Amino acid sequence: MQAARFYGSGTGLEIETVDRPTPGPGEVLVEVEACGICHSDLHILEGDVPISTPRTLGHEAAGSVAEVGAGVDNVTEGESVAVHGAWGCGHCDVCARGDTQLCNVMLWEGIGQDGAYAEYVLVPDERYVLPIGDLDPVQAAPLTDAALTPYRAVSRAREHLSPADTLTIIGIGGLGQYAVQFAAMTGAQVVAVDLDAAKLDLAEDLGADVTIDAATEDVRDRIRAVTDRQGVRVAIDFVANEETLQWCSNTLAAQGQMFVVGLGDGTFDVQFNPLIGSEVTATSCYWGSLPELRDVLGIARRGKLDVGVETVGFSDLNDVLERLDHGDIHRRAVLTP
Ligand code: NAD
Ligand code: ZN
Ligand code: ZN
C-alpha cells in the first residue's frame, strides 16, 4: 500500500510502498477514505514534537472496515467508520478514566504508531473505530480532531459561560472554524480573531458575532470595546504564540478562563494577585475522548455542523503542508489516498 512517511525534520514526507498490515486479535484494519491534514503535523515536521521514525503520519481518519481480527464483533467489514486516534495504553489513570488522549505512553495514531496518511491504517482496538452510518467519510475525517478538540475545549468552558458572556476564538483555521460553531451553540457572544480577512468572513458565516482582523486592528482594544470593558469569560487560543497568549491573558474578565490549544511556543504572564487577577484560570486542552467524539459525530449526523474540506492526493501532500504553513488552506485539507 502507499503511505506518506516521516524520516526526520527538514525532509518533508516520503511517499512509499509499504506492507499492508494484517489485523491481530482485537485489531481492525481500516481502508482510509480520508485523513485530515492537521497543523500538528507541521510541528512534527519542524521537529517541535519529537517522535520516533520512520513513522506514517496522519491522525484524523475515516474510511471503511477492510478486515477485522479475531474477537472483533462490534464492527463488520465494509462498514463506514471514523477512527478515534487517541490510542492509549489502556492501563494508566487517565486511560482508566477514558481520557486516552492524555495518556503519556503516547501510542496515538500517526504519532506513536503508524497513522492514516496511507491506504490502510491498523487500529489497535475496536473501541477506537466508530460507525458513522450515512456520514460521508471525507466529511467525517476532520471531525476526529479538527472538530473533536474544540468540542472538548468549548465543553470544558461551557459550565462557566452564560449567554450574556463573551468567548474569544483565536485562529480560525482547521480547528478554529469548528470552535466558532460550538461556541455559537452556547449562546454567548462569539469573537473570532485571525490575520486573514477570508477566514474572518468564514467565521461570520459560521456564527461569529464579532470578527477582529489582527493584521489591521488592535485586538485588545476591540475586545474591551465589545465587552463594555468587562473582558471575556473564555478565550480559546488555537495559535498560542507570544502575541496571541498575551491577547488572551490581558482580556479576561473576572473569573475568566483561557484555554491553550495551539502548539505554538509562546509564553505569557498572568497576574495571580487576587486583588488584580480576579480568579482567572489558564489551562491547556488536548484533543478529545471517545465519548466526546461520539457527541461530535452525533451532532454532525443531525446536520448541525458545517464541514468544509479540500481533498488532495498523495502527490499534493507536501505542497499542501507547505500551504498550511503559510495559512493558505481555507477549509480543512483532507488526503484521499
Ligand atoms: P491551521 O493552520 O489550520 O489554522 C491556524 C489559523 O491561525 C489560521 O487561520 C491562521 O491564519 C491563524 N493565525 C496564525 N497566526 C495568527 C495570529 N498571530 N493571530 C491570529 N490568527 C493567527 O491550524 P489547525 O490545524 O487549526 O491547528 C491550530 C493549532 O492547534 C496548531 O498549533 C495545532 O498544532 C494545534 N492543535 C492542537 C491540538 C490539541 O489537542 N491541543 C489538536 C490539533 C491541533
Ligand atoms: Zn491534529
Ligand atoms: Zn494510558
Structure description:
This protein is α/β, with parallel strands linked by helices and 337 residues long. The chain contains eleven helices and 16 strands. Strands 3, 5, 6, 7, 8, 15 and 16 form a seven-stranded mixed beta sheet that branches. A six-stranded parallel beta sheet has the order 11-10-9-12-13-14, with helices on both faces. Helix 4 packs parallel to helix 5. The mean pLDDT is 96. The site of one zinc ion (ZN) has 5 residues, from loops.
Concise synopsis of the structure shown:
With 337 residues, this protein is an alpha/beta fold. Helix content is 26%, strand content 24%. It contains eleven helices and 16 strands.
- Spatial separation of the terminal alpha carbons: 10 Å
- What is the CATH architecture assignment of the largest domain? Alpha-Beta Complex
Count up the helices. 11
Net shape: globular
How many domains make up the coordinates?
2
Order of helices and strands: EEEHEEEHEEHHEHEHEHEHEHEHEHE
- Characterize the largest beta sheet: strand count, sense, and whether it forms a barrel: 7 strands, mixed
Percentage of residues in strands: 15-25%
* Helical content (DSSP H or I, runs of 4+): 25-40%
